[in-house]
Amino acid sequence: MSNKNIARELTLTATENLADEIIFKTANTLLEDTIKSIPFASVITGSIESYTKFRILKEQKQLLAFIQEAENINIGFIEKFFKDKDNLELGLEVLGILDQTYLEKQAKMMGRATILFKSLSISKQKFDKYTYIITKLNNHLITIIEHLQTEITTNSSMSIISLPIPNMDLISFGFIQKLPNGSWFSEAQNKTPFDHKITDEYFYFYENIFKD
């Protein structure tokens, strides 16, 4: 059986046995209770079924992207991961995190981060930090990171660049740091008060998790 077929079977099994019970059932119950309390609910009851189908397709798409990326990196990883009872809690955590994502790129990054953690390349604390960052990455932030990497590459991989209006999310992620007052004259590439240092945290995340 091909890896693609295995991935699809694992996707359906994991989604049916875990996601349906833990994610969808609770959300749908709450939604149904809310709808019933609204006058003329019969007019919009069909929205529940449409929303449920959308959620199922979205979750399956993200889980499939996660599985395929993990299998591309480490063939057989997914089967071992989900069959190992010791990974039950982590598996539920991963499914919960995937539920917070909507971009295929986010699901792929989750696959890479999970393999890094299970291979002991990163600690649980780092895994938690990176998965938090992954859930916050929308198309806008992804574009900013891609532009940042282009500028770094263009400037011969210099770790200090000028950012007159730095993105606050990149600062909170620990990806860029404002140079201390008084230090930029000797350290900065462009020697301006807007110079920021690109951290090792950024380079590791970009090379090992973000980059396709």
Structure description:
The chain contains 11 helices and 3 strands. The mean pLDDT is 80. It is mainly α. The chain folds into 2 domains: 3-125, no CATH class; 139-210. A 3-stranded antiparallel sheet has the order 1-3-2. Helix content is 70%, strand content 5%. The longest helix has 34 residues, at 3-36. α1 runs antiparallel to α3 (46-73) and α6 (104-118) packs antiparallel against α7.
Low-confidence stretches: none
Gross morphology is globular
Radius of gyration: 21 Å
Number of strands: 3
Give a quick account of the main beta sheet: strands, pairing sense, barrel closure: 3 strands, antiparallel
Distance between the termini: 26 Å
The helix/strand order is: HHHHHHHHEHEHEH
What portion of residues belong to β-strands?
under 5%
Give the helix proportion (percent range): 55-70%
- Give the helix tally: 11
Q: Number of folding domains? A: 2
Provide the residue-averaged pLDDT: 80
Q: Give me the side-by-side strand order of the main sheet.
A: 1-3-2
Structural class by SSE content: mainly alpha
List keywords for this structure.
212 residues, mainly alpha, 2 domains, 11 helices, 3 strands, 70% helix, 5% strand
